[in-house]
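Title: Comparing notes on inverse folding

I've been comparing how different people in this forum approach sequence design from structure. To keep things fair, I'm posting one structure and asking everyone to reply with a full sequence. Here's the target:
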């Protein structure tokens, strides 16, 4: 039996290990999975350092959304430790003024004691329009947000707002890379993933149909297949 590859999984904003549950189950025959805790720090730099401190010496790395920002920072801090890289529904760009304004508004909402109102506001941006009434899916999203909590959410938003523009660093990535995006991702659209794929030599771009920003939960079978090929390659 082939030795399993260590796989470090990085969740997005207001997400925890539930974001990756379908992949952890489906890939368990070929990968030893661990999900990093990205709730404790106020900078992407610190998040990456903490994830590295708890990771095996060498590992495959996958990050979605904010997890993708942290994955890119890990590639800056310790590229020699990463065997393979998967960037899902993320961006190499720093926040625009409009994005920062939206984040500050959500932080303000949370600080006014209306943290439970944050996720309903974000939901239309997170999942495919046809899944907005999918109670099983939305229950997972709400449970993850509750688990991260208000303080974790504020720390994450500050980290995201302070992240660098990483477009120039993409060319330095020399490991097998998967770039994956939901076709209807409203937060990090397909064009951004084409930019990432063009920036990483030899990377593979996978577009998941009928999916928004969270394809690991919205279309797990398609994501599992793409990640299996990536790990096997």
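Reply #1:
Here's my take.
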């Amino acid at each position: 039996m082939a030795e399993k590859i260590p796989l470090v999984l990085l969740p997005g904003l207001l997400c925890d290990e539930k974001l990756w549950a379908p992949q952890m189950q489906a890939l368990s025959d070929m990968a030893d999975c661990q999900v990093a805790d990205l709730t404790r720090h106020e900078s992407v730099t610190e998040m990456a350092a903490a994830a590295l401190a708890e990771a095996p010496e060498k590992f495959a790395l996958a990050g979605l959304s904010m997890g993708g920002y942290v994955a890119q920072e890990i590639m800056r801090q310790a590229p020699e430790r990463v065997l393979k890289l998967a960037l899902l529904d993320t961006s190499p760009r720093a926040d625009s003024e409009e994005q920062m304004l939206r984040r500050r508004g959500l932080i303000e909402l949370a600080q006014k004691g209306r943290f439970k109102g944050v996720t309903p506001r974000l939901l239309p941006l997170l999942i495919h329009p046809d899944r907005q009434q999918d109670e099983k899916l939305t229950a997972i999203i709400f449970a993850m947000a509750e688990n991260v909590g208000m303080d974790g959410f504020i720390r994450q938003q500050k980290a995201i707002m302070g992240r660098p523009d990483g477009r120039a660093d993409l060319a330095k990535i020399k490991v097998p890379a998967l770039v994956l995006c939901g076709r209807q991702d409203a937060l990090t659209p397909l064009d951004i993933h084409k930019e990432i794929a063009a920036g990483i030599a030899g990377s593979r771009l996978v577009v998941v149909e009928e999916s928004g920003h969270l394809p690991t939960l919205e279309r797990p079978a398609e994501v599992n297949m793409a990640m299996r090929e990536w790990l096997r390659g």
